[in-house]
Design brief:
By secondary structure, the chain is of the alpha+beta class. It is built from 4 helices and 5 strands, in the order αββαβαββα. The termini are far apart. The chain binds tetrahydrodeoxyuridine. The site of tetrahydrodeoxyuridine (THU) has 15 residues, from α2.
Amino acid sequence: MTKINIEQLIQAAAQARQLAVAPYSNFLVGAALLTRTGEIITGANVESASYGLTCCAERVALFKALTDGKNDFVAVAVVAKAPDGATPCGACRQLLAEYAPNAGVFVADSRALKKIHRYTVAKLLPRAFTGDALG
Ligand code: THU
């Protein structure tokens, strides 16, 4: 994947962030998944007055993609207004480990989109529990 692709993916996440529904935290997050075939699927966080029902941007993007038949992901970008950006939470790491285990994770602060921090799903959640364990 070229640097330009990653920058485009970050841009897509930044754009998706504008559509976050986060009236309680006002912490807007955008995510963008890249499939092996070059498709981008975006999502943003959606909050509930019953706070625990909130769904993170990463999972919204993942659920959108999966239920649209897309399941071969090479990268995910996450943009939030936070120093050095926000890496996926534990719940999102679990879902990413199950459905995007080989993906690169690219994170940026919405105020510094060109400063991209690079991780992998495997690095963020080593020794993940997966369906393999269920036999
Ligand atoms: N959030 C995300 O969407 N992704 C993350 O990686 C971290 C947290 C959301 C959940 C909630 O709506 C808000 O950010 C504050 O936690």
